[in-house]
Amino acid sequence: MKLVEYPDAEMMMMDLADKLASELSSALRANDTASLAVPGGTTPGPIFDSLCAVDLDWARVQVMLTDERWVPETSERSNTRLLRERLLTDRAAAATYLPLYADAPTPEEKLAELAASLSPALPLTVALLGMGADMHTASIFPGADQLDLALQGSDRLVAMRAPGAPEPRITLSATVLNAAMSRHIVIVGGEKRAALERARHLSPQEAPVAAVLNGATVHWAEA
Ligand SMILES: O=C1O[C@H](COP(=O)(O)O)[C@@H](O)[C@H](O)[C@H]1O
């Protein structure tokens, strides 16, 4: 794991947007398409605000979430909603979006269909991940009912329920995340930095983010 510390979060978000754009751009020079997986939650919005305006051949980029909360897009908790409002806009509106949500009462009903639709975008070119203070990443939570499958299984997508998550989740598996050609993790604040340091000495069962640290670049700013 490589750790990059920034003087402030604003600078980190802009630098990281540049880094992601440059990795996608290099991939597009060598390939017809490139793919990008991004987190939801409260952290990545400012990265999306910069990235969506970058001059890139977005029509050749496939974008997906690392994970989704099983709620409709009308919900404030929808990661898809965040993505549509702040990343899939401006120049990036030309990207192809591969959804991790479909209208059904439970994720299990749509799991196979959604997993199959990801084929053209795998392996991922770039994966950007977030992390919670409980050391979950994507929607791979400590104590989740399908934790072993998400950490060690060969399935692309896993549906799960977890004590720390108020709604069912659907998540890319650690196998898919670790197959990405480039992997970044973005965290802000002292609590998450302390959680990251703890995770480095814990098992993925205790600290799921530990499953994706090897080979990843972690980007951190205090605030
Ligand atoms: O629930 C989620 O949590 C993590 C961390 O979110 P944050 O609000 O603490 O930044 C996020 O990476 C994930 O995509 C999201 O579904």
Automatic annotation (TrEMBL):
Residues 7-220 form the Glucosamine/galactosamine-6-phosphate isomerase domain. It catalyses: 6-phospho-D-glucono-1,5-lactone + H2O = 6-phospho-D-gluconate + H(+). InterPro entries: 6-phosphogluconolactonase_DevB, 6PGL, Glc/Gal-6P_isomerase, NagB/RpiA_transferase-like. GO terms for biological process: carbohydrate metabolic process; pentose-phosphate shunt. One of its GO terms (molecular function) is 6-phosphogluconolactonase activity. Its EC number is 3.1.1.31. Gene3D superfamilies: 3.40.50.1360. Hydrolysis of 6-phosphogluconolactone to 6-phosphogluconate. This is 6-phosphogluconolactonase. The lineage of its organism: Bacteria, Pseudomonadati, Pseudomonadota, Alphaproteobacteria, Rhodobacterales. The gene is pgl.
